[in-house]
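Quick start: what a row looks like.
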Amino acid sequence: MTDAWTDLRGSGVMNLVVHSAYGVVFLKSVDCSAMKKDDGKYIFELVDSCIDEVGEKHVVQLVTDNASVNVAASAMLKAKRPNIFWNGCAAHYTDLMLEDIGKLPSVDLTITKARGVTVFLYAHTRVLSLMRDFLGKDLVRSGITRFATAYLNLKSMLDNKKELQKLFRSDQMDEMGYLKKVKGTEANKTVCSELFWRGVDSAVNFFEPLANLLWRMDSDVPIMGFIYDAFVDAKKEISTKCENEETCLQEVLDIVDKRWDKKLKGPLHRAGYFLNPYYYYENKLNIELDGSFKDGLIACMEKMVRDGSKEDIIMDDIQVYQDEDGSFGRASAKRQRRNKSFDPAKWWSNHGSSAPNLRVLAMRILSLTCSSSACERNFSVFQQVHTKSRNRLLHDKMRDLVFIKANSKLKQNRGMKTRDPIELKIFADVVEDEDNEWITGIVPVVVIAEPEVETTSVASRKKVSRPKKKKKLLPVYREDELQSAGSSGSEDEAMHSSSDSE
C-alpha cells in the first residue's frame, strides 16, 4: 500500500506499508520532494523496488487511491509484473460516495445549517461551557475525512436533539444575550425547526450505511471476502431507511453504483465473494447463474498461478467446493460457515483439505485488505512526531521514529476491538482541532478537481495538474456581535480569531 503526504517543511513524503493476514507493518517512507512524479515512473520504480525487497511471490496486490500518477504507475507495473493486481482503495471510494451524497442540494443545506449551530456554540466560552453542562460531553466530533466528520456531527446532533432544544430554551442561554444577535437567532431558529431535524434524519439515513461500510473498510482486518456483500447490504439499508425519500433515494443509489461498478467489482472482489462459504452456499443458485463471480475466480487463478497443469487441478477443486464434497460437507464445516463474523481464510485452512490447491489460492485471496487507510494512519503518526516545535527533524531520523512508533501502535490496535476507525482521536479536546470546520466555520473549497483517469496507456494520458485547495472563511460573527449584550458581561471572549476578523 502507498500514499503521499507533505510535512510541515513542505517536503513530499511517501509511505509504503505491507498488509498480511496478521496485520499491517510500516515498511518505510521516502522523501520524494525533488522527484518528478507526474508520469508515474518514480512511483513505479519505488513500488517495484519494494516488491523485490518483500519478494514478488509474496505479493498479490497493490492498493492506492486513483490519482492519475498511480494509474500511470499501475500500467507500468502490469507490464513488468502481470501476476500482481493493482486495486483502488475501497475506503477512498466509499468516502467519495459520502462526498457525492453530501453535495446533493437538500443534504448540503442541512449540513450548512447544522454547521452554523455548532460554530455558534463553540464561538463563545460561556455558551460552550453551558452546552457541555446540558449535554455532559462535547457535541462536535472529528472524523478521518471531511464527510465522515459531517456524518459524525449530524449523528451527534440527532442523538442530542432534546438536550440542544432545552439548551436554547433555557434561561441561562437567554440571559447571555447572544440569542438576540443575528447568528444566535439563526442558530435558535434552526434548532427549533422540525423541518431541519427531518433533514438531519434523512441525511444521517443516507450517510450511515456507507459510514458503517467505511468503518469496515478502514480497519486492518482482511475484508476481501466481505466487500461485495457489504455494498449490497449498504444499498438495501439505504433503500429501507429512505423509502419515503423517493427522489433523493434514487440519486443516492446511483452515486453508490457509479463508484462501486467503476473500481470495486474487480476479479479479486468477485472471487472473494465466491470463496466466502457464508455467502456462497446461502446464495449458490444466484451466484452460479450470474457467472461473473466464478469468472473472477478463474481470472485470479490464471494471474496468480500461471501454471496450466496446476490450474486444471484447481478447476477440479472448485467443483469439489461447489458440490460440498469431502471436508466441505463435514458437520463442523457447515456449522462454522453460518457465523457471519467468522474468518473465511481460517475456515479454508481448517476445512479445505479436499481441495488442497484451491485452498492455498483461497487463503491468499481471503487474507487481503481492500484499503490503503493504514498509510494515512501513519501520516497521523508523522504529525505527532513532526510537530511545529520539532520541524527541523531530518527525514531519515523522522522515518526511523515513525517506523518504531507506527509498528508499536500496530500491536496496541489489535487489542482495541471497540475503537472507531472513522473517528479521529488525536486531540485531548476537540477544540484543539484547528481544521474542523464544525468549530471554525472555515470550509475548504476545491477549485480544481482532478478527474479520475481510466486509461491504462501512459502514452495517451494527458498531463493533469494536482488539485489546489483554497479555504473560504465563512462569516461566523461580525465584530459587534461578539460584544457582550446586556448581562453577558465583558469577560466572555470569542474563541476564534477568525470570528473576530469578520
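That is the whole record. The longest strand covers residues 12-20. Strands lie at 2-6, 12-20, 23-31, 61-64, 85-88, 442-446, 469-473.
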